Amino acid sequence: MTLQTEEMNWPSIRKAVNSGFKTVIVPIGSIEQHGLHLPTFTDALLAHHICEKLAEKLGRTLVAPVIRPGCSEHHLAFPGTISIPPNMLRAIVDSYVGSLMRTGFKNFVLIPTHGGNFEPLRSGLSALKKKYRRVKVFGYFDLPGFMNAMNEITSLYGISPEAS
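The structure corresponding to this sequence follows.
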């Protein structure tokens, strides 16, 4: 069975939620440059796979579709970058939580994989928690910790931080 809601039909999602899948991870990536050697959807791809692995580890957890555009204003000089302002990113996340709450999810885990998204999401978390008191909203906003983990993983493959 897939854990990615975008790969499921609605009866399968309903069945999963009714059988105890009450947690959903919201992956938040970006579309922007990653050097000359990586595609612009690198952060979105990372979000997809990292969150799927996290869902497997947590158990009884599904993964929402990746929010692909991120706060990438600082990359707009590179062709193909799509940037949205922080308030729009927070509004999209708010819409995800509000929509998926109606599906029956009770726990939401926000996972950004693009550096420009960490602070806007962290600063908006209290408003989400206040608005959606009937559910729990968590977020991972440790950008230095995320970067250290990514650097450790890439170094296992002989890739320098600059090249990743």
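The two ends are 31 Å apart (CA to CA).
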